[in-house]
Design goal:
The complex is a heterodimer of chains A (about 425) and B (about 375). With about 425 residues, chain A is of the alpha/beta class. Chain A is about 55% helix and about 10% strand. Chain A has 19 helices and eight strands. In chain A, the strands form two sheets. In chain A, strands 2-1-3-4 form a four-stranded parallel beta sheet, with helices on both faces. In chain A, strands 6-5-7-8 form a four-stranded parallel beta sheet. In chain A, helix 1 packs antiparallel against helix 2 and helix 16 packs across helix 18. A four-stranded parallel beta sheet of chain B has the order 2-1-3-4, with helices on both faces. Chain B has a four-stranded parallel beta sheet with strand order 6-5-7-8, sandwiched between helices. In chain B, strand 7, helix 12 and strand 8 form a beta-alpha-beta unit. Chain B starts with a helix and ends with a helix. The chains are: A alpha/beta (about 425), B alpha/beta (about 375). The interface between A and B is large, with 51 and 53 residues. The complex binds iron/sulfur cluster (SF4) (2 copies). One iron/sulfur cluster (SF4) binds next to helix 7 and helix 17 of chain A.
């Protein structure tokens, strides 16, 4: 059936956007580059265009495709098989943080009674819901909220607010936490797989589409291969010098979070990987002179990304790995299993934040060895309890087991009000002088 | 006899003692194994070493519990039980496992609402697993013993329902402080002793004069009634708590069951899934509003106080919509936030006072 909205969406996707992005590229002046950093990645432009395209098309998607707002750890593959256009409020929160728009949005949520002690991604998003403010123009109204608590319980508390305020359905994928010492979580896998099977008819009703098994298998293949490619991208940082830093990886993470299961995502990581391999071959590093190799724990401090990147580079410190970026490469090999629902359950149920701190310590110890890490920076993120509680203990354990130098900085991923420049500089200065 | 002496005496009788973190857990299953669960909600440890392990933005329930363990006050325990209540408790479990590897930990995941049939099967599988593990460590339990424990739980729940009904009807004229001091004995006493305490409270109510007139009947919602000084302040201001939606009390009382009985585990599962909606177990705003409005009607409370614990995310998220929905229904609402064991600040005291004055004035006007 003919529809103006669909026509507008198609023409924006196939004609208007490619044209305007190429013009934009030509017009754009090169940014000033910091001398302590390595040459910028060519791929960054492609990434920027992809994300502009994603958010631009999102505005036109309503009425053309079913729209879902999704948490970063939710098994989006089910939605892709039903042609949902997906928006990630956490990714939007990161954009708001990096663009220094989060503080105002958080304040808008606080004016509605939400406590400043709540996760700032949630406050940013709720602030957007109340004020409409966003640096990306406009987000499409969702038809569905799709949430998994495999990263934290907070996302469920948050998404149920959205369901209440917007009066739309919320589908939860409940992923039981796996404590240290628990081996094969078979009952949990059966529980998760059963939920995924049970939610298909609901998703079909909301999307008004039929679940297509072949498409589902194709999406799973794309997801798995994209995640593997992302894993290979990260592995190039084992080289000396590392061809980019983890601050670059925080930015290039966006497609695996937001576009997982789509061909563009896989295509993008193939391109990025070949550029990085080229840099490794030519001995080009993410920073000009790599003397010390560091690891980052927790989410990025989005509003300080550039400052931190320069500060560490000026001291010859290159961040070569992070638990956060690694999370999207860690468990997708489970997507191989015969039963696709069980495969999803295993892949999404066993992510780092859904496991005990003993598991995280062992993973970090392995990464410290593999990436030849000399020091560790823990971002104690006021917003994120599952990522932050226990870091002090991890700090002691890893310093003892691996003999690396460590520091904890207290901050927040998007809300600058929880960040003290003075305190952080003092701590980092002492760390860098160690 | 204080709590610690009480527990040591039970231990001398040959019972095992488990430290249990908030909130819901299969108490009856532990009783069946002769394990006395002692709940760790709000101990009052002197020093503060927990800062070496957790950040200042962690709630005081987790902080106080960890402190207790760090100070060696949990050394006599035979095990820990961690229900998966929230992200903070989840990570606390990992910390405890690493600092006290000598004390075994048990874990229970709460399937988050909405609960389909798969949630029931998963919960049942977990209970089976815990039963098996406890059996391997402490010896198996006869079906009769299990059934007795479940029956004791049922009797206690029905006494609790009676206590709340009598409180709502104004027959149980004890102070708020005494009311909660007695109800909270269930956090560490044996089933028999707690049954006795509740029966005693009901009897004591009979000997007191009714307390309806001149008091302000209030419904309180939150994590737990601490700091206790706030209860005293409420007593002074003529507030009578007639119903609560506390995670550690009202939200742990299942709906009454009628009809035929199943096996002990079937009974426990059915009780679990009939518990009132709780922020920590994923219930939606609508379900919580419905529950609170019914509780208001049943208890004839005239206002609601949300008494939250600082940094408690599950409760704080639900607060704005609950306040809004109750407001739409003409219910007066006050929110106060406290830290455990830190007394009542002047600001909280003043706000409480102002609230009581306003509500009483409006009540007067309505009459
Ligand atoms: S920042 Fe942490 S608490 Fe907030 S949504 Fe992400 S994982 Fe959850
Ligand atoms: S008070 Fe809230 S945050 Fe703290 S342990 Fe209880 S439920 Fe968790």
């Amino acid at each position: 059936m003919f529809s103006w909205k669909a026509l507008r969406f198609r023409s924006a996707k196939d004609v208007v956007l490619p044209l305007s992005l190429s013009l934009r590229g030509r017009r754009k002046k090169a940014k000033t580059h910091d001398d302590s950093l390595g040459p910028p990645l060519r791929c960054s432009r492609k990434l920027k265009e992809m994300m502009i395209r994603h958010y631009y098309l999102a505005r036109l998607a309503k009425g053309v495709k079913p729209v879902a707002w999704v948490t970063s750890g939710a098994p989006v593959e089910l939605l892709r098989a039903l042609d949902f256009y997906t928006v990630y409020p956490e990714n939007h929160g990161a954009l708001c943080g990096a663009g220094r728009a989060a503080q105002e949005l958080c304040a808008a949520a606080e004016r509605q009674g939400y406590s400043p002690d709540l996760c700032s991604y949630a406050r940013t998003d709720l602030g957007h819901a109340f004020s409409g403010g966003t640096p990306v123009g406009k987000l499409p109204e969702p038809d569905l909220l799709f949430c998994s608590n495999n990263i934290c319980q907070t996302v469920q508390y948050w998404f149920k607010q959205l369901a209440y305020h917007r009066g739309i359905p919320l589908v939860l994928f409940d992923a039981p936490f796996i404590p240290d010492g628990e081996s094969e979580p078979s009952a949990a896998v059966a529980y998760m797989a059963a939920q995924l099977r049970a939610c298909v008819p609901k998703l079909e009703r909301i999307s008004r589409r039929e679940f297509d098994e072949n498409r589902f298998s194709e999406v799973l293949r794309l997801s798995k291969e994209s995640s593997e490619s992302w894993g290979r991208v990260l592995s190039t940082l084992k080289a000396r010098p590392a061809p980019m830093t983890i601050f670059d990886a925080f930015v290039h993470l966006a497609p695996i979070v937001s576009l997982r299961g789509l061909p563009v995502c896989l295509d993008y990581y193939h391109t990025l990987l070949s550029e990085l391999e080229e840099r490794v071959g030519a001995g080009i590093g993410g920073i000009r002179e790599e003397r010390t190799r560091l690891m980052w724990d927790n989410i990025a401090v989005w509003f300080k990304l550039r400052d931190f990147s320069r500060l560490f580079a000026s001291h010859g410190c290159s961040f070569v790995c992070a638990t956060y970026t690694n999370a999207w490469a860690e468990t997708m090999h489970f997507l191989d299993a015969k039963d696709p629902f069980e495969a999803l359950a295993r892949a999404y149920g066993q992510v780092i934040l859904n496991r005990g701190l003993g598991y995280r310590a062992a993973l970090m110890e392995r990464m410290i060895g593999e990436y030849q890490v000399d020091g560790l920076v823990f971002h104690s993120d006021r917003s994120c309890k599952p990522y932050s509680i226990g870091q002090y203990q991890l700090q002691r354990t890893l310093a003892e087991r691996c003999g690396v130098k460590t520091v904890v900085i207290e901050a927040d991923m998007t809300d600058p009000r929880s960040y003290s420049e003075e305190q952080t500089s003092n701590r980092l200065q002492a760390f860098l002088e160690m | 006899m204080n709590r610690s002496q009480y527990l040591r005496a039970r231990k001398l009788e040959g019972r095992k003692v488990f430290g249990v973190f908030p909130a819901q857990y299969p108490k009856e299953l532990l009783w069946a194994f002769d394990i006395l669960p002692v709940e760790i909600w709000d101990p009052k440890p002197a020093a503060c070493e927990a800062g070496r392990y957790i950040q200042p933005f962690v709630c005081s329930v987790v902080r106080a519990g960890l402190e207790l363990i760090l100070q060696g006050k949990a050394d006599f325990l035979d095990g820990f039980f961690f229900p998966h209540t929230c992200d903070s408790i989840q990570n606390l479990m990992s910390i405890v496992q690493s600092i006290r590897p000598d004390i075994p930990c048990w874990f229970l995941y709460h399937p988050r609402a909405p609960h389909g049939l798969e949630a029931e099967s998963f919960y049942a599988a977990q209970l089976e697993g815990i039963t098996r593990q406890l059996g391997e460590r402490f010896g198996t339990v006869s079906p009769e013993k299990y059934a007795d424990a479940v029956e004791a739980g049922r009797r206690i729940n029905s006494l609790l329902r009676e206590v709340y009904e009598r409180r709502a009807s104004g027959e149980l004229g004890v102070t708020n402080r005494e009311f909660y001091d007695t109800l909270r004995l269930g956090e560490f006493q044996t089933a028999d002793d707690y049954e006795g305490a509740l029966t005693g409270l009901l009897r004591r109510g009979e000997s007191l004069t009714a307390c309806g007139d001149g008091t302000l009947p209030i419904l309180v919602s939150g994590v737990l009634a601490n700091p206790p000084e706030l209860l005293d302040r409420m007593d002074e201001l003529g507030i009578r708590i007639v119903a609560d939606d506390f995670i550690n009390l009202g939200r742990r009382i299942p709906s009454p069951k009628e009809g035929s009985k199943g096996s002990p585990s079937v009974e426990m599962i059915s009780d679990y899934f009939s518990l009132p909606p709780c922020s920590t177990r994923g219930f939606g705003i609508e379900e919580r509003v419905l529950f609170l409005t019914r509780l208001l009607e049943r208890s004839r409370a005239e206002a609601v106080i949300f008494w939250t614990t600082k940094f408690c995310e599950p409760e704080l998220f639900d607060l704005p919509p609950l306040t809004k929905e109750l407001g739409k229904r003409g219910v007066r609402v006050l929110h106060i936030e406290t830290e455990l064991n830190e007394g009542v600040s002047a600001q909280v005291a003043t706000r409480l006072e102002a609230f009581v004055e306003t509500v009483n004035r409006e009540r007067g006007a309505e009459i």
